[in-house]
Design brief:
This protein has 348 residues and is mainly alpha-helical. It has 2 domains: 183 residues, no CATH class; 158 residues, no CATH class. It is 85% helix and 0% strand. Helix 1 packs across helix 2, helix 3 packs antiparallel against helix 4 and helix 7 packs antiparallel against helix 12. The longest helix has 56 residues. The two termini are 16 Å apart. 19% of the residues are buried.
Length: 348
């Protein structure tokens, strides 16, 4: 049998296994979402545990120290931050229909302004059609907001279960690593371990770096919108931080809610210009100052491939697919690099 045939069969089996795992993950997406939340938190906390271990603190005691610190921090947030955030969220839910009515009134004004009484019928039906589609869009936005709130309440269960999973992930990290290592073929073990270290460094560096970038963008955006007196500056800032996860199109998505609230409140082109200018400065700093400082090693991914991967994983896994699409693509690139270098070639 040709030596290339077993390799082809092996790769087909790996692709089939990957397809099965993706299908199972989609069917169990709520469970997978909880696991991924724990996985990301463990990646964020593990470097701190490694630092404590270097200072001669046993891992279990390091976990306890971190959990105590996080518990104090969480208590402060629950006491001072969550009530304010909850109150503002309730106000947003109550006031959002009013915002939609204001936008509808503005749309009717635009219709009256750009459609004189003597206008031809073909222009009139075009404007009427656009207005009806706009009304449908507003209705979808309103229903989508309430659906999002429902999903957020459901996902609160993940916040309760995640700390337990994170504890076991951190505590049994070495045992899990040793167990996986023992299953690796002996003659490929060193190569596979080196591959695992490269992938681990890529994924861990991206997750920690993106967390820092999103936090900085959220804070800067909230401050800028607060200075501009845009309603719900905090929520808009948080959304901008989350949108920064999306490559290339995140900056566009981040400005939409801010522009919406700014125009409804001020009904001024200058207000829109100020919001766009503020976000332009923030994302310029993100792209040319913050990310080069936070990400020590670039992912070096093709922009087109990046967008396609983010869209595909976002469709399959939602928020977590968007967050992990880039490191997964980077891991695939690392594997492809190992294959091109012949590191998985059969040894004689």
């Amino acid at each position: 049998m040709n030596s290339a045939q077993p390799n082809a069969i092996r790769y087909l089996l790996l692709l089939a296994l990957a397809a099965i795992l993706i299908a199972a993950g989609y069917a169990l997406r709520h469970t997978v979402s909880c696991f991924l939340l724990s996985f990301v938190l463990a990646y964020l906390l593990d470097p701190l545990l490694v630092y404590l271990e270097r200072t001669k603190v046993q891992r279990v005691y390091g976990i306890v120290i971190l959990y105590v610190i996080l518990a104090i921090f969480s208590a402060i947030i629950l006491i001072f931050f969550v009530p304010f955030l909850t109150l503002r969220w309730q106000q947003l839910i109550q006031n959002f229909p009013g915002y939609l009515l204001k936008i509808q009134a503005l749309a009717d004004g635009w219709k009256a302004q750009f459609l004189p009484f003597a206008a031809a019928e073909e222009w009139r039906w075009l404007v009427d059609s656009a207005t009806q589609n706009f009304d449908k869009l507003l209705g979808r936005i309103g229903s989508g907001l309430y659906a999002t709130l429902t999903r957020m309440v459901f996902n609160l269960f993940n916040l309760v279960l995640a700390p337990i999973l994170v504890f076991f992930m951190l505590f049994y990290k070495q045992a899990i690593t040793d167990g996986i290592t023992s299953w690796l073929p002996a003659r490929r073990r060193e190569t596979l371990l080196a591959l695992g270290r490269d992938i681990n460094g890529s994924i861990g560096g991206y997750i920690r770096g993106q967390f820092a970038v999103s936090a900085i963008v959220a804070i800067l955006s909230a401050i800028a919108l607060f200075v501009l007196d845009v309603d719900y500056a905090l929520f808009n800032g948080i959304f901008a931080g989350l949108a920064s996860i999306l490559p290339f199109i995140g900056v566009i998505l981040a400005t939409i809610p801010a522009l919406f609230f700014a125009y409804v409140k001020f009904q001024s082109g200058m207000a829109l210009f100020q919001v766009v200018a503020a976000f332009s400065v923030i994302y310029f700093l993100e792209g040319y100052v913050i990310k080069p400082l936070v990400f020590k090693e670039a992912m070096n991914l093709n922009p087109l491939v990046t967008v396609i991967v983010v869209m595909a994983f976002g469709e399959l896994m939602g928020f977590w697919g968007i967050l992990l699409a880039i490191p997964i693509a980077a891991a695939g690139k690392i594997v492809a690099h190992y294959i091109r270098q012949g590191k998985f070639a059969e040894e004689g």
